[in-house]
Write a structure and sequence with these properties.
With 438 residues, the protein is mainly β. It has 3 domains: 292 residues, no CATH class; 92 residues, Immunoglobulin-like; 34 residues, no CATH class. 1% of the residues lie in helices and 51% in strands. The protein is built from 1 helix and 39 strands.
Length: 438
Amino acid sequence: MIKFIFILFFPLWIYSQGSLVVSSGTNIVSTNNPTINLYNTNLSNNTGTNNLGSGTIWGFTGNVSQNINGTNITNFHGLRLNNTAGYTLASNTTITNRLEMVNGNIDLNGNTLEVGSSTSNPGEINWVNGTIIGPLKRWFAPSTNSTQSSGIFPIGNNTTNRNVIINYTQAPTDGGYIIVEYKSGIPSMADIYGGLPIWTSDGQVIQNYENEGYFDITPFDYNSSLNTKQYTLTMRANQLVNMNDKSIVRLIKSPGPSHTTWVSCGSHSSINGSLNSDFTVTSTNVTGFSWFNFGSQNENPLPVELLYFEGIAYPSFNSLKWATASEHNSDYFLIERSTDGEDWRQITIKPAAGNSTEKTNYFYLDNIDQFIIHYYKLVQYDIDGKFEVYGPIMLDNRIKEKKIVNYINTMGQEVNPIHATGLIFEVYEDGSIKRVIR
């Protein structure tokens, strides 16, 4: 059997629109840490080993999305990514030495991405741009760390980067690995507002938290020193919806593995960044891993997303209906009615969904005894008393005189009402009929 051997002494560029398949029987022998650069090329590792060259740096560049896959866990010594179109992992991947992210998102596609291989070889991440979508596993040595490259987790979703940086100020004596993932939506808790409101170390009240997603940070063992030693935690608040005042935002956590309540997250240290749309929040003296989120008081509202509020007028009642696309922290809806648009009276209260990411429909039938114009307002209240008003809408219940369009006799024949006698029928424009005896 002939075995192919790649002996690399200098950077190698591969220009291709297809795939580079490293088949079984291929050995990659590296000298002086060479770089293999793949331009618009997928990589498929089908070798009998998971090691693609000890000391080799694999570079992925171009403008077409690239895939990394194979029959085994792909083990890179180094990986450098600079492709704005991004990358997809089609197999589990380990980077033992260094991950360099210059451009492009990495979609893990349900697979595992691991940086480092042990407490003695924790690896590093040099981050400039790009987001890892899915769980990122990183190793930590049994010592303190203070740099971005040793503690950053460049995670988020396919539209937004939400970097996390963990720097230990007390040495975790046994080291180990930590897995960090940004998850969309509201955390699955028995009481998603358990423990709130809380007050942080600097006296800031926390009544609410953002509902776009949360950070799930899990140590390899909750009883390990990774979970008991102090660290500094920095999280990126990027493109949060309705963020009006970054100065009152703090980090909060729901300690694992039970995740039953929200508590303050260490000692609030600083907020960095000039924009409400992109800033970082840092807490010191943090211990324990948890679900984490950005908390604030209700000056940063998370409102109900109302789709519509409308009504239909009937002869003796009005049908009112409204729908929400999502709700967060909602308590109830109140409907008010007015006959002049100035003086309002409450007519009913409807419980709200509370928290929902799906469409919710509501309706109410209002019986009326006056055939006049009616006005309605919808008022939505949060659990903390904050409210928002929608409307008013107008419904016209005035009785309109119907126009007669024809006269007929009992045989259905059209007659002249001036000369007709006995029983005849008046036919109105809306199709209704009235009996008349002349």
